[in-house]
Amino acid sequence: MSKYIAYPKNVAPKICDNEWTLLRDDALPEDFSLLGPVIVSYAYWKNHQEELQEKSTNMALGIFFSVTDDVVQDQAIIQHGMSHWSLIAVDFPIFRDGRGFSTATILREQYHWEKELRAIGDVLIDQLIQMARVGFDAFVLREDQQLDVAIAQLQRFPVKMQNDWRGVRTLLQGAV
Asked: Which of 15, 44, 139, 156 could form a cystine bridge with 40, CB 3.0-4.6 A?
């Protein structure tokens, strides 16, 4: 079973077993509820909403956004779907493509997504601190990345100089 890093707000990061099956293509099995918790593409969700809404009552369902999905234009569809999704993932097709950071910020700040927000794809250790700041609280790292090094990276800086999704900067906490 693959592993991922869970890093919820106000909790230390930890390595967890990944029970979710990521279904990247639209050729899904007829009865994919046998796979356990599944993550389907947002494009697939848009085309099969009614069927998936029924299935989401009996199984854990997540979706992933690609960098080409327009989360601003599809606001109504996304906000309606959020009640059916157990997690949202954002796919990073290549580490230098930063559009997923904007998607995460919109989901957390504008749409008030409170459940798990997972970074998938070409996710590197060097990106984790910035990803955590904009709202990601779970990370599936690229296969060549070391999970124990990633945990150390997330715990590297005990003082925060700016406000972010996780809270206010360290220097203001005592003054509030």
From this structure: 44
